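Thread title: Can someone regenerate the structure for this chain?

I was given the following input by a collaborator and told the matching structure tokens would be attached. They weren't. Posting the sequence so someone can regenerate them.
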Amino acid sequence: RAGEWRERGFVQIADYFGDAASYPDGSSRENSYGYVVGASREGLRAWEMAAANGWPFPGRLEQAIARRAEFLADVRKPDGSCPWTGDGQRGYPDEFLRQVARVGRRGVEWLAGRGSALYRWGGVGIMRGVGAAKANYLFFDVGPLGTVHAHEGKLAVEVVAYGRSIVEDLGVHSYSREPREKPWYRFFGHSLGHNTVVVDGLSQMRLATGPQVVEAPMDNLWWSTATCDYLAGSYEEGYGAGHYSEPMVSVYAPEDYRGAIDRSSQHRRSVCFVTAQELGEAEYWIVNDWISGMGGHICESLYHLVPGKISVENRTVRTMAADAANLALIPVGNVEVEVVEGRPEPDLQGWYCGGDLRPVPAPCVVHRCRGALPRLIQTVLWPLRSGESDLPRVAAHGDDGWLRIVRPDGETDIFCAPRASGAWTWGQWRFAGAAYLARLDRAGARRSEECIGPRI
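Best answer:
Regenerated them for you:
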């Protein structure tokens, strides 16, 4: 009965790699890429055995594995790893991708990803720089919580500057909930351990409120042209004390959340990637955090950096790695800047796992504003090649999100990301849409113009 059992196995694997594990576009229902890479390798073994023995292989399973491979190729960072989301250890998909290319008789050119991309089912946005190296990279999570191993990190980003990963998710330290480990377990799973916004020091609460998955592709505004990439997402499910509890069967009993959930504020984040127009030209990201709602709040935008030296000058935080790429985090407007590194219990902050046996201190950059909502926190993330030090001059104009960015080469960018789509004006600049970007040369002449989103 070998043939019967073989077919049954193929059906079960196809069911898993189909609707159980993946969305129709190949993105993963599980938002933990270490586990996604591991499970993908196991599924590929069935395909390899079929190919080696001349067995017919189900077409839908072959298509599902190919779609998964394309997804992992797109989210793969320049250093070969996947974003460190959720509970999984750091995942490296290259071996899986090469095997898929070999078994599926495909070329290898697709292994480096297609460039910038959005997966609307999983809510995964990738903004990747131009050129063969595609060495500037930003991952933006605008999707659902995910099934199993999920963390409270919606709207979080990871950033790679010229091939060096600098802003990262923190992964997981331990599944243990014994007294010594439980504070770490909760910290790395809560929003405080992610590169997103927290309100009044509280965490996102999707493990208590949902949703875990989506039933249709998401309609997030995505704009990708030769001039820029733009993606927006929102979190509206409320904030609380946190309910990070491993959502799978384990030796620990499930923990019900019985505390309050504050729904008086909502977070909308958009990221604009201003891409290089010529070889060697600078490219950078603008992160726009609008916090709306009722009442007065303390809003904090967090950026967790890998361990290393930093400098702080005029509120700009810059990594200071020798003979390597770096990143400057430039705050805009009236925000407080704090760098927290190795803060102990009970208020853990400024730690990094990175595969170490114990968490190690690492800088967490906090951009903070206080007061009645709505509030806007804008940050320019400026990559620096090894040996570079010149930064742009950035100024906010008004309360609607207008920025003037004067580059080190003397050219100027005008940008606006208002709270909502509409008609917006600042001096000679006006547009009707969701966001706006104008590129000016040194003489002030307009090089390009993007009115982002549906025109109003």
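The chain has a mean pLDDT of 91.
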